[in-house]
Amino acid sequence: MATFVLVHGAWGGGWVWKKIVPLLRRPGHDVHATTATGLGDRVHLADPAIDLDTHITDVANVLAFEDLTDVTLVGWSYGGMIITGVAERVPERLAQLVYLDADVPANGEDGYDAELCSEEVRAADRAAAEAAGMPGFLVIDTYAEWIGALMPDPDDRAWMFAKCVPQPLATYTQPIRLGNPAAAAVPRAFIFCTEGKGDAAVDHTVRSAARVRSASGWRYRELADTHMAPINAPQATAEALLSLSSP
After folding, report:
1. CB of 102 within 8 A of CB of 192?
2. Which residues contact 220 (CB under 8 A, 6 or more apart)?
3. pLDDT tens for residues 101-154?
4. Does residue 77 carry a catalytic annotation?
5. Domain range spanning residue 191?
6. SS3 at position 180
7. How many helices (H) and strands (E) in the chain?
8. Do strands 167-168 and 188-193 pair parallel, antiparallel, or not at all (unpaired)?
9. Domain contains 238
10. Which of 12, 43, 103, 140 stands the most exposed, by the fewest C-beta atoms within 10 Å?
11. Are 223 and 229 in contact (CB under 8 A)?
12. For residue range 202-233, what is the model confidence (pLDDT) as tens digits?
């Protein structure tokens, strides 16, 4: 049986995996859904000082305190930044990294870089946070229309938006530092959500999918749903993860 550790994306929490966790546990797998500091049920800890390192530490600590090894570490969206950093710290605990339509950062990139965001996007995010009275945070407001369009079920949209909270901006502006040879040797997989995508010049998941689908050390899967597949299509998402349960 595999051990899955699930890492959510921006504005989220362990709650995003609510429909998927029982589907992975049903065959007998061990499953842990993490929540990053300042988000989800840990929103009471929100602070602009929280950065990418904090979120990497959150997951590394789960692995350590739960005595987890041979882990399939899954990162969705921004969660790709986190799992990449966790591999740098504790590669010996990992069986594989699974990037679920996720950021695949290079050394020195921050979240904005990994997502191909322009300076105009960064400035708009800062302005939106100021307007919301939340300087130092990344608010969901400017992305709500785009995200909503990727979720056809109004009940799913209402459920998700009710739980999303502002994310400390430093989690997106702190560059990741890579260079551990043991981390580079950890097997990787990419699950590409095929629907609602742009071209490789503007959509980082399209670019990443094209880069890794035949790369050494990577496995590749496609999921016929949008970037919001973990909420829209939990069964299909779980099946894609289970197909990778043996590295």
Report:
1. no
2. 189, 190, 192, 209, 212, 213, 214
3. 999 999 999 999 999 999 999 999 999 999 999 999 999 999 999 999 999 999
4. yes
5. 3-242
6. coil
7. 12, 8
8. unpaired
9. yes
10. 43
11. yes
12. 899 999 999 999 899 999 999 999 999 999 99
Using CA atoms, how far apart are residues 197 and 158, in angstroms rounded to an integer? 23
Rounded Cα distance, 55 and 61, in Å = 10
**Residue 31 to residues 14, 26, 66, 230, Cα–Cα distance (Å):** 11, 10, 11, 15
Cβ 212 vs Cβ 188: under 8 Å: yes
Catalytic residue among 77, 243, 245, 246: 77
Residue type, 57: T
Identify whether 247 is part of a domain. Answer: no
For the question of whether the overall pTM of this predicted structure is more than 0.90, the answer is yes
Kindly report the length of the chain.
247
Tell me the torsion sign for CA atoms 226, 230, 236, 239: positive
Give percent of the chain with pLDDT exceeding 70.
Answer: 100
Sorted by sequence, the CB contacts under 8 Å of residue 221 that are 6+ apart come out as: 189, 190, 191, 192, 240, 243, 244
| Domain CATH number, residue 98 | 3.40.50.1820
Is residue 92 in a domain?
yes
45-71 pLDDT per residue, tens: 999 999 999 999 999 999 999 999 999
Band the pLDDT of 26: cuts 50, 70, 90. very high
